[in-house]
Design brief:
The complex is a heterodimer of chains A (408) and B (228). Chain A has 408 residues and is an alpha+beta fold. Helix content of chain A is 54%, strand content 17%. Chain B has a single domain, classed as P-loop containing nucleotide triphosphate hydrolases (Rossmann fold, 3-Layer(aba) Sandwich). Chain B is built from 7 helices and 10 strands. Chain B is globular, with a radius of gyration of 18 Å. Classes of the chains: A alpha+beta (408), B alpha/beta (228).
């Protein structure tokens, strides 16, 4: 016996060791359960962060644009209008009114990290005989790159934009037969024209984006589109990305603009994340329940098998409280041991899966996210589950009448 | 008047009271025992002697009457106090030894002291080793408790019953499962402890010759004490 160790610990460990086959089976059972939880949680966290990263590094968390132009009915005060069909006017490129003052106000909001004015519109990209319709986005690189991580998508050249340079998608470059250093002609619908040098090629992992997306300096785009000093949108990033919708509503309430949050523009994706989280919670709950019932079943059997020993311990002066603690400890120890083995199994499985599962382009399917917090949380949860599962068997053991127990 | 070690006043025990299966096992039993006594309780099966032993051992409560241990009315004690008194004052020896298989012989002997203190220490081990030596099991002290002969296991059980230096040792058929040689050894050991430390031994037995070697025989028949 180890000196100084409480009686309950000594007896609990000895009982578990003596019934080692039983202990081994239940620890394996708990480990599989914990392993599944660790694997699922870490993989989903990785997938979520990957998808979030993809969504949030290619678009702003809030985009502020000018409100739609609406047609109004001219009223004749003398006559009431009985019926009218109001046709929606075609939307011309709308600039944000007083955007400089809106930017100043938004930058003072505590949850807002960056605000970047942009202008975008359709233009023609021409090189030799080839011409393609593209979206030209004029940006202030210093702030815009902090919101949308364009430099991360540069596969050739560099992203340092000047007034006569342009970043284009790799598909567009292929279609125009252009490389980094080549010049292309940009022509807008109102005859604005510039010759720009390609300084970098972008790969967003999406063919359509790679065909249409181009980036130039804000002033260059304003000049090409003939809208000097104007911007079509303000891109906003936040500290708390999940507060985007509330912040969008606040912006709309205080300015004459439309603010669209990434949550709204990616509603489908957002509900997919929520569904994924709900599924994960359900899986954890049911795995947790099966682990709890497994531990409880083993301990109930143990109480029956050890009723004589419990009776003898009671005859020696062991209190009901000590008997309860003895069985709670066994439950807790089974849960804890299972959580340790399970964490190794889950993490090992995840590392293996991460190395095997690849996207079609050979990139990783999800980033490997193994947070220490997840292991601590799982160990605490499994131990608590073990303790709770042991409650009923422990009470049953404590209620045993020593006379009946000894007689068997 | 000095308190008796053990005093039973009109102790009765009824099982399943108020139900059709009601059974009155003990009827108003009066009994007094003193320190140093070596007593045998005899009687046919179902006569109530085991119930009487359980009540004296504070493992069961009487339905009526009072039980005093050293003048203390045990009926006034709650479950926790009763458990404590049982641990401190009473040692048990069972017919089938009932050693705990997860522990060695020495650890089984240490257990009552560990239960009392809450954790093991050097004093517990020293006391247990002393008793293991006294019952002649020095060489097998560290063997698993259930890897021993019946006689050896019963000697371990006796050492375990004595480790807390109880005033009373209750033995239910202590030699009933042993060959005659082992039975004689265990009985001699109990007698030796009784003589040296004035521990009161109460032995339930069917064995008439064993009972006759005790100081006093208490016969229980149909829940009554016939002669003492």
């Amino acid at each position: 016996m180890t000196y100084g160790l409480p009686l309950e610990w000594i007896v609990a460990v000895r009982f578990l060791y003596e019934g080692r086959l039983q202990t081994l089976f239940i620890v394996v059972g708990v480990s599989i359960g914990v392993g599944v939880i660790v694997f699922m949680s870490a993989m989903l966290a990785g997938l979520e962060s990957n998808i979030l990263k993809r969504v949030l590094t290619t678009q702003a968390q809030i985009q502020v644009i000018a409100p739609d132009q609406v047609a109004r009915i001219l009223r004749d005060p003398a006559r009431e209008i009985e019926d009218a069909t109001v046709q929606r006017p075609s939307q011309r490129l709308a600039l944000i009114d007083q955007w400089q003052s809106i930017v100043r106000l938004l930058r003072d909001e505590p949850n807002i990290t960056f605000v970047s004015p942009t202008i975008s519109g359709s233009v023609l990209a021409i090189r030799g005989e080839a011409s393609r319709s593209i979206t030209l986005v004029g940006i202030e690189p210093d702030t815009y790159f902090r919101i949308v991580k364009i430099p991360d998508y540069v596969v050739a050249g560099h992203p340092r934009l000047t007034s006569d340079s342009i970043l284009i998608g790799i598909e567009l470059a292929r279609e125009l037969g252009a490389r980094v250093g080549d010049k292309i002609n940009i022509t807008s619908a109102n005859d604005g024209q510039r010759v720009l040098t390609i300084i970098g090629l972008l790969d967003f992992g999406n063919k359509s984006a790679n065909q249409r997306s181009t980036y130039v300096a804000l002033r260059t785009a304003q000049s090409v589109m003939g809208m000097i000093g104007g911007v079509t949108s303000l891109d906003v990033s936040l500290h708390d990305i999940y507060a985007a919708e509330d912040m969008a509503q606040t912006i709309m309430a205080s300015h004459r603009v439309v603010a669209e949050s990434w949550i709204k523009t990616n509603a489908q994706f957002f509900s997919a994340i929520q569904a994924q989280k709900a599924t994960n919670t359900l899986i954890r709950l049911f795995v947790g329940l099966s682990v709890a019932f497994g531990i409880a079943a083993v301990l109930v059997v143990s109480v029956i098998q050890r009723s004589k020993e419990i009776g003898i311990l009671r005859a020696m002066g062991t209190t009901r409280g000590q008997i309860i603690r003895l069985f709670l400890l066994q439950g807790g120890l089974l849960g804890f041991a299972g959580s340790l083995v399970g964490a190794v199994l889950g993490a090992g499985g995840l590392v293996y899966w991460h190395s095997v599962a690849r996207q079609s382009d050979g990139g990783e399917l999800f980033p490997l996210v193994l947070e220490q917090q997840l292991f601590v949380y799982t160990a605490v949860l499994a131990t608590l589950t073990g303790l709770l599962a042991a409650m009923a068997p422990a009470l049953r053991a404590a209620k045993l009448d020593p006379v009946v127990a000894i007689r068997g | 008047m000095a308190d008796h070690l053990l005093r039973l006043e009109r102790i009765g025990k009824v099982y399943h009271a108020g139900e059709p299966s009601q059974a009155e096992v003990l009827h108003a039993i009066d009994l007094t025992l003193e320190a140093g006594e070596f007593v045998a309780i005899m009687g046919p099966s179902g006569s109530g002697k085991s119930t009487l032993l359980n009540i004296i051992g504070l493992l069961d409560r009487p339905s009526s009457g009072k039980l005093f241990i050293q003048g203390q009315d045990t009926g006034q004690l709650d479950d926790a106090a009763l458990t404590r008194l049982r641990g401190e004052s009473i040692g048990f020896v069972f017919q089938y030894h009932h050693l705990i298989a997860a522990f060695t012989a020495l650890e089984n002997v240490m257990l009552p002291m560990v239960v009392d203190r809450g954790f093991p220490d050097l004093t517990c081990e020293a006391r247990a080793r002393d008793l293991i030596d006294r019952v002649g099991l020095t060489k097998v002290a560290d063997h698993p408790a259930t890897d021993m002969s019946g006689g050896q296991q019963q000697r371990v059980a006796l050492a375990r019953a004595l480790v807390m230096t109880p005033q009373i040792v209750l033995a239910d058929e202590p030699t009933g499962n042993l060959d005659s040689k082992s039975a004689d050894d265990v009985f001699a050991l109990m007698r030796e402890v009784n003589t040296k430390s004035r521990t009161c031994f109460i032995i339930v037995t069917h064995n008439r010759s064993l009972a006759e070697r005790c100081d006093r025989i208490i016969e229980v028949v149909d829940g009554h004490i016939r002669n003492t």
